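Batch job 17 of 40 flagged for manual review because the log was empty.
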Amino acid sequence: MGETSGIPGLLSMLKLHTVYVITLVSQTTSALVLLLLSWVDRRSRWLVPLAASCGLHAAAIYLMPLWRGTGRWLPQAISAALLVAMLYLIHMGLQRLIWPLKRRSAKVEAGSGGLMALLFALGFLRSLWCTEATCLAGALLLARTSWMLWTAPKPALRGPLRGTALLLLAISAHFLVRLPLELTQPASAVLLALRESTMLLVTLMAFSFLAIYATESRRRLHEESRLDLLTGLFNRRAMEENAAQQLLVAARNRWPCALLMIDLDHFKELNDTWGHDLGDRALMAAGGLLRRTAQETRQCDAARMGGEEFAMLLADWSVDAAYALAERLVSEMAALRVGAGGAEVGFTASVGVSVLQAGETIWTNMLRRADVAMYRAKEEGRNRVVVCSEALLTSLDEATVTASLARRG
């Protein structure tokens, strides 16, 4: 009889020990992996709070045997405090991913932390309520974090973020179901199963963090493959992709569309006289001006097409509005200065403007017309804007245009 009754007890202890070991090992490993990733990839500092949360969960699991089945409340209170801190770190880490540091509200963050501390303090001051306060605090914070993830303005991360939100809601539901049982049946088998399943769900959450990191890294890699590293503008490939989409939309909605081709004047002489380092700084200054203009301007993409040549695609812009913007860019470009051995060197730009014609859905012809207009701007003395017109096109034969574009500089 005693031997029979001892076997289920042994199996129960082995089962509990197995859950502890799986959770402890996986959370410790996850903490180290996330911390290593945050150190290798400095742009993923949001992983640091998540790594700390995994570490705190491992510490809480390690402390659980100290108070399970005993009357001592201090280890229980410490474990509960670690769990509350772990959930808050999860919230803080994911918030740093979704909202850049400059956009995060310190008041919201402090308010969330203060609320969690208050709920836990109620249990800490009265030891009988430690676990109950932890369940309530955890459920509230996880629900808030789930809502933040579900409504996050990150389309590229929508899948893993919403998957993590559902996982957090499941953990929150576990906390809410456990709350009445912690109050009425603290030693029931159902409560023990809920505690173990909560630990396993929290363990799965670490894998969701890795999924979010992998998706975010893939998104950044895709974006970086579309950028010119020197100027931070789109590269030619990205501009062609964007133009294909923009022109289809413009044709469908019958919007006007304009293209600016911008070329720095006498750039080869600038390089030969002052060196390639100053030439790079001139390109960076010009790219910075175009990037700021694109950010401030409605429906505008800017790209470095190669060498000292840039382009701006203006969707739903009339030719007059595009000409006014080009004139402004020429004026602001001429005001830029880059340092060279204690001296300041300026440069100018020539701009050609073309517009989308009826029936066009690809930008090749519009690009060619803007090129012709830019060449004419250089022929007329540089540092100016020329709009491509039918008269301009008919005044140049194909051989002249090809040779002129080859000599442009």
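Reviewer: the log was empty due to a logging misconfiguration, but the result itself is present. The first helix runs from residue 2 to 40. Unflagging and moving on to job 18.
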